[in-house]
Amino acid sequence: MAWFLLVVAGILEAGWAVGLKFTNGFTKPLPSVLTIIGIVASMYLLAVAARTLPISTAYAVWVGIGAFGATIFGMTVLGETATPLRFFFLLLLLVSITGLKLTSH
């Protein structure tokens, strides 16, 4: 269950990271409130997952999922650069996340 919560926390982390783009420096009320809710929910789920998972693994996986999701969103929706080299590094990130999970006790 901890791994499931951690993945959901990572997806929420990607969501609030992207949400920051739409808050316009927290001057737009609805995107700001949604982003803050995402931050709180993501941190809460990370904390619950860290009750049973090592924090070093949980935090790295949480950040990795968030970075991966925000990057994919940026490339597909916001028109950010999508080069083969960026995809290669995203693949390395996925390998790292998977490796951390597989070597965690």
Kindly report how far apart the N and C termini lie.
14 Å
Parts with pLDDT < 50 across at least 5 consecutive residues = none
Structural class: mainly alpha
- Helical coverage, percent range: over 70%
Number of helices: 4
- Sheet of most strands: none
Strand content: under 5%
| Overall number of structural domains | 1
Mean of pLDDT: 96
Number of strands: 0
Features:
105 residues, mainly alpha, flat
Topology:
Elements: H1 2-23, H2 29-49, H3 55-76, H4 84-102
Helix pairs in contact: 1-2, 1-3, 3-4
Family: Belongs to the drug/metabolite transporter (DMT) superfamily. Small multidrug resistance (SMR) (TC 2.A.7.1) family. Gdx/SugE subfamily.
Keywords: Cell membrane, Membrane, Transmembrane, Transmembrane helix, Transport
Pfam families: Multi_Drug_Res
Short account of what is shown:
The protein has 105 residues and is an all-alpha fold.
Description:
- This protein is 80% helix and 0% strand.
- The chain is mainly alpha-helical and 105 residues long.
- It starts with a helix and ends with a helix.
- The mean pLDDT is 96.
- It is a multi-pass membrane protein.
- It is found in: Cell membrane.
